[in-house]
Amino acid sequence: MRIGFLVNDIETERAGYTTVRLAMTAANRGHDVWFINAGDFAFDTDEKIRARARTTSGKKYKTTVSYLKVLKSETAKVERITVDELDILMLRIDPADETGQRAWAKTAGIIFGNVALRSGVIVLNDPTALAGALDKMYMQLLPQNIRPRTLISCDRDEIKAFVRDQGGVAVLKGFQGTGSQAVFMVTEGNRANLNQMIDAIVRYGYVIAQEYLPASERGSVRLFLVNGEPLRYKGKVAAFQWVRTGEGMRANIHEPGQTEAVKLTDAHFHIAEAVRPRLVQDGMFLAGLEIIDDKLIDIDVFSPGGLGTAQLFEKVNFNEAVIHALEQKVDYMAYYRRRFDNVDMATL
User: N or C: the chain end with fewer CB closer than 10 Å?
Assistant: First the structure.
């Protein structure tokens, strides 16, 4: 199959990134793999989507380090490809990395991916659904019983009232979820600074005030879903535990942590099942859930990462399972002469 990976910028890709792992796995399985930067698309005068892209030679690679080194080197093949002739276009741009003058890059894949759909390219995750997931409201479309209690507002008094209703303890974060924004833990010790915390977030837009989950002191679980279900390979499930190594949450909850193996519980699988209908309806092929106890605190449908970490603990290569799922989609489309809508094909 011919597969393109759209990334923010190939120069910022790292050997441990999930995108690189998936691309190398596809290349080693004999597929034609291309990397495209956010700014390298073009809508040509013949109304075809093309892009300046790069690929490696047909050899197999033992490590992502060697694969990425070749991909970034002068020996890499750089060519202006016709995106409409790809079998699959994987949209792997992280919107949180694009702010300021590059804010346009957040929607590059969505815009050009939507046009590529008309030529029968399978675009994952579905670009129309991704457009609706650019902010944290997407989380609020999921079942209420699996989410922390949440208020979204710009009104200082409403936010303060929510914090009071939560016993004076709450989490505040930005609606857009950009990486530059702070995430604050409001406690009895720093409540006098609540105005400053709100100001630090509201300058970027709406504030999310959220119920504090005591178990967050210990960290969270990352669980991967493919085709709307937990990603399984050779009897193992792709997941891991992130454990906080700081001295508990204080002003800003972005603190150091480490990863560990995780024993998944019924609560984790219940959450996965609860979000499955929405992900299937929206054509979200690959997603990453962040879970604390029995609550879903975040969902990544743009560039879920950490498959390498899950592989480290479970001792199986989950990238193989993901690429196999893509191969099946290409086979389906060929057999049925591309008669499936992209949203339906995304999670078959």
Answer: C
